[in-house]
Amino acid sequence: MGAWRNSILTEAIAAYRKVIEQDLAVDDVTLKAIAERCIDRLRFQGQHTKAIEIHEILIRRFDDEPHYRNQLAVTYLFMNRLPEAKAVLHETLSRWIEDGFALVHYGFVLKTHDQNMELAVQYLREGIDTGHAGTQDGRFYFQLGDALQRLGRNAEALDVYRKGVEKKLFLSLYQRSLYNVDGLRSRPFWTMEQTTYAVDLERVRAEWMLIRDEGLKLLNADGVFVNESENLRDRGAWKQLELFSRGARLERNCARAPLTCRLVEQHLPAARSCKRGQVKFSVMHPGTHVWPHCGPTNCRIRAHLGLNVPDGTYIRVAEETRSWENGKWLIFDDSFEHEVWHNGTTTRLVLIVDLWHPDLSESQRRSLSPI
């Protein structure tokens, strides 16, 4: 069925391109409709480079309409080609300085690529305030608030988040995940019993010293743990070793940690199959601070098993701060804002296990896209 649908889509794209190639022989209304449909389907297939050709035809034909430049920038963002997206958006804003769509996307690039929080705040705020189509999106409120927090302007950030809640872009002031399922129970911290996985979690917890020994041994191997890659660190060192990701077993890493992977597969099917989470060792060094941040989805519950926990390590989830303990689970909903400090003197090691939210049905778990 999938191959048949893909074949139909490919045939449709070819038909659209034949019309588009006639360019000047096609009237404006038809060209716009056909070209945008073609771009949509090329993006769906991941053929972004081919979509760029269509964008350029539209820009040449409709040079006085910023929409077509903005959409080229979006395609570059899909490709993770942020410098090209920035250049296109800069060109748009040089001609249409109050275009809200270009402003918020330019602010997004300034924050995520350039790490220029001050300018990012300016552009994101101006763009959101226009109210133009495409600006009232949780991602832009999220990025604006995050930039303000990193500048130490926490009261302003909370005001942005409150507006996001009012517009129903966020589930609540502190629960700001963007890929959600309605109606799931939410609380910052969970007990083992509340997860409904208490028996399974206890079976893994009972082996915590063996898991700890396996993790500590790997800490001494070069190139096994890799840096956290989402730019969440304010300072310090925070690394991880993924064992399962998006519901898939990572064979190379499980070969290095066979006992831990076996325990997860035997006792935690809700983690092994969780397409919206990971299982990983997480190591944090003294002097580390992790910025306040939210996970992407409310579809999982995150469990930390303390393995090597020194004094002076803390995690805040929403408005409550706790610490880890060796051989115990600390369970929270990472779609809520959380922040981490390591003020101790030795390395902190935990095993992170993401579990399907217990309120999700089996059919929902099967149908949800990976994150």
UniProtKB/TrEMBL annotation:
Any one cellular-component term (Gene Ontology): endoplasmic reticulum
Superkingdom of origin organism: Eukaryota
InterPro entries: Asp/Arg/Pro-Hydrxlase, ASPH, IPNS-like_sf, TPR-like_helical_dom_sf, TPR_rpt
Aspartyl/asparaginy/proline hydroxylase domain sequence ranges: 206-358
Molecular functions per Gene Ontology: peptidyl-aspartic acid 3-dioxygenase activity
Pfam families referenced in this protein's UniProt entry, alphabetically: Asp_Arg_Hydrox, TPR_8
Membership in a protein family: Belongs to the aspartyl/asparaginyl beta-hydroxylase family.
Full protein name: Aspartyl/asparaginy/proline hydroxylase domain-containing protein
